[in-house]
């Protein structure tokens, strides 16, 4: 299911089918004065392919608006959760899966929270300034490209990014 992207809605990861495609179509029309209108279009178009409960409609609308803002290079409107922002770039290789699991394992070991995003679209990978995969980006800073770092190295990077001292192995 390559056309499903995981996003955070009310603190929960949910899969949204067709998000990348619709963002690609709407982003070129973005202007600050049209943001609300385009966010409404995004929600309406995605409702046809995704189950969005009425009780969570407003939370989905905000999360999707944030995705639109990210797609055009703006900061999301939602307040940050205070956790880490982690991106694992992979072109569909096994190394990307291994790196993603290593990141989840490190977060668990360190007791940290964070938003982990898998980036597999070639244009998004290039927009991050990455020249290879798998790659790890923590809070906007590229940490590794083309290899899977050791568990200790990942612990160190995540611990420093969260301003906590990582445990020793």
What does this structure look like?
The chain has helices spanning 19-26, 35-47, 57-71, 94-110, 122-127, 151-161, and strands spanning 4-9, 12-17, 84-89, 114-119, 135-138, 141-145. The model has no long low-confidence stretch (mean pLDDT 85). The strands form two sheets. It has a four-stranded mixed beta sheet with strand order 4-3-5-6. Strands 1-2 form a two-stranded antiparallel sheet. A hairpin with a 2-residue loop joins β5 (135-138) and β6 (141-145). α1 (19-26) runs antiparallel to α2 (35-47) and α4 (94-110) crosses α6. The protein folds into two domains: 4-71, no CATH class; 84-161, Glutaredoxin, CATH 3.40.30.10. It is built from six helices and six strands; from the N terminus they run ββαααβαβαββα. It is globular. It is of the alpha+beta class and 169 residues long. This is Thioredoxin-like fold domain-containing protein. Residues 85-158 form the Thioredoxin-like fold domain. InterPro entries: Thioredoxin-like_fold (IPR012336), Thioredoxin-like_sf (IPR036249), THIRX-like_proc (IPR005243).
């Amino acid at each position: 299911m390559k056309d499903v992207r995981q996003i955070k809605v009310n603190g929960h990861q949910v899969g949204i089918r067709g998000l990348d495609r619709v963002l690609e179509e709407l982003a070129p029309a973005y202007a600050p004065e049209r943001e609300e209108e385009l966010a409404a279009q995004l929600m309406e178009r995605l409702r046809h392919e995704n189950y969005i409960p009425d009780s969570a409609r407003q939370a989905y609308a905000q999360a999707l608006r944030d995705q639109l803002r990210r797609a055009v290079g703006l900061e999301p409107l939602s307040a940050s959760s205070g956790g880490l922002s982690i991106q694992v770039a992979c072109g569909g290789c096994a190394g990307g899966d291994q790196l993603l699991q290593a990141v989840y394992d490190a977060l668990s070991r360190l007791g940290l929270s964070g938003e982990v995003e898998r980036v597999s679209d070639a244009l998004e990978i290039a927009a991050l300034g990455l020249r290879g995969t798998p790659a790890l980006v923590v809070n906007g800073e590229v940490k590794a490209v083309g290899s899977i770092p050791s568990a200790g190295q990942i612990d160190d990077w995540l611990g420093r990014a969260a301003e906590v001292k990582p445990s020793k192995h």
